[in-house]
From TrEMBL:
Residues 1-26 are annotated as: Disordered. This is DNA polymerase III subunit epsilon. Residues 10-26 have a biased composition (Basic and acidic residues).
Amino acid sequence: MSKLNAGQRKARDDERFSQRVNERREKGEDVVAYALGNKKAVKFLTKSEKKNLKERRAMIQEELKIKEQQELERIEAAFTEDNAE
């Protein structure tokens, strides 16, 4: 097998990801979740799927912020309890 140049590898990989996304879509699987886990699959989503992806990313970011804030509050509470004694 001859070596592929960068453009050929990219084209091959794009075709593979396109097929994987289409297979998941045909099976009724959550292609947005797949794209969240695999960034290369994002460009093969439909417009509505990309919108859903953007919404999910925002929701995940918000959840992370909330968890981080709760952790900071817990640490702060533990620190103030230690100083009170």
